[in-house]
Amino acid sequence: MRIALLQMTTGIDPAANAGVITDAIAEAAKGGAAMLFTPEMSGLLDSDRARAASHLRAEADDAVLAAVRKAAAEQGIWVHLGSLAVRSDDGKLANRAYVIDPQGAIRARYDKLHLFDVDLPTGESWRESASYTPGSGAVVVDTPVGQIGLTICYDMRFPDLFRALSDAGATILAVPAAFTRPTGAAHWHILLRARAIEAAAFVVAAAQTGVHQDGRATYGHSLVIDPWGEVLLDMGEEPGLGFAEIDPARIADVRERIPVLAHRRPIPAVETAS
User: Fold this and answer.
1) Which of 3, 54, 70, 270 has the fewest CB atoms within 10 Å, measured from its CB?
2) Which listed residue (27, 30, 112, 198) is catalytic?
3) Phi/psi at 231 (nearest 5 deg)?
4) Residue 118 scores a pLDDT above 90
5) Is residue 247 helix, strand or coil?
6) What does the DSSP 8-state code read for residue 221?
7) Rounded Cα distance, 181 and 174, in Å
């Protein structure tokens, strides 16, 4: 089964970003992909909150989501829209992923569970919780390429989520991201390979890359990793479209060789010795 990944340098104009995504949908369909995966914050990446606020909408009014749904239906392709910032009823935002089918219908939604609040040695400071409300549940969705477990970026550091997804039947773990360069260089490849190996599942991680209009810089290196931890696709630092082949038989082969899912056991309470 062929999939496509869009590596983006998302900017501050949602209409321009929507154009990049819809062009990629057409190109992915032409290239024979059954599904396209896009990065976290595909519709807008802007650290200027006042400027960004004028573009933020509730899901029903989001122009990027509407454009992607229309393009998916026109091209007859599944799309994993890595995430959009959408307004919630509580006045904050949700960092929300969507899985859209070839009729343009939304088949699944997932709100990012783990919010990135950190001060980096580079001087960068991130406070997602100042604007975003965390999600409240995990999601697995059935698609032609497999059962996809949905996560977003910082979620990758929390293996309990990935265990829950693989226990629920996920064979592909989607990890759209906008990873910083310092943390990307240190942890991106090793964490994603670990998540694939632990779950004996494919990892598909479409990423933001390059220097963005708001001044931030992201790591790139969109990845497809097989259940043995082998990297099938690494897109480097250039924006664009990449393709990879997902072989479902590989999952069964790896799980037979090392049946980690079958060997999982509940962890008993930890005893503290003095």
Assistant:
1) 270
2) 112
3) -80, 115
4) no
5) coil
6) -
7) 20
Residues 6+ apart with CB under 8 A from 162: 149, 151, 156, 173, 195, 198, 199
Question: Residue 46: CA atoms inside 13 Å, Cβ hemisphere, count?
Answer: 18
**What's the maximum distance between 2 C-alpha atoms anywhere in the chain?**
65
The confidence score (pLDDT) of residue 187 equals 98
Sheet holding 35-37, edge to edge: 106-111, 93-100, 78-87, 35-37, 2-7, 240-245
> Residue 211: CB partners within 8 Å, gap ≥ 6?
9, 217
Structure tokens at 45: 């990446």
Q: How far is CA 113 from CA 83, 124, 194, in A?
A: 13, 22, 20
Catalytic residue among 124, 153, 198, 237: 153
Helix (H) or strand (E) holding 217: strand 217-219
Q: Rounded CA gap, 110 and 154, in Å?
A: 14
> Which DSSP string corresponds to 106-150?
EEEEEE-SS--EEE-TTS-EEEGGGTBPPP----EEEETTEEEEE
pLDDT category at 131 given cuts 50, 70, 90 is confident
Residue tagged active-site, from 27, 40, 124, 256: 40
Active site residue 245: no
Q: Is the pLDDT of residue 128 over 80?
A: no
- Where residue 25 falls (left for φ over 0; alpha for ψ -120 to 50; beta otherwise) is alpha
Q: Judge whether 153 counts as a catalytic residue.
A: yes
Q: Is 230 a catalytic residue?
A: no
User: Mean per-residue pLDDT for 17-43?
Assistant: 98
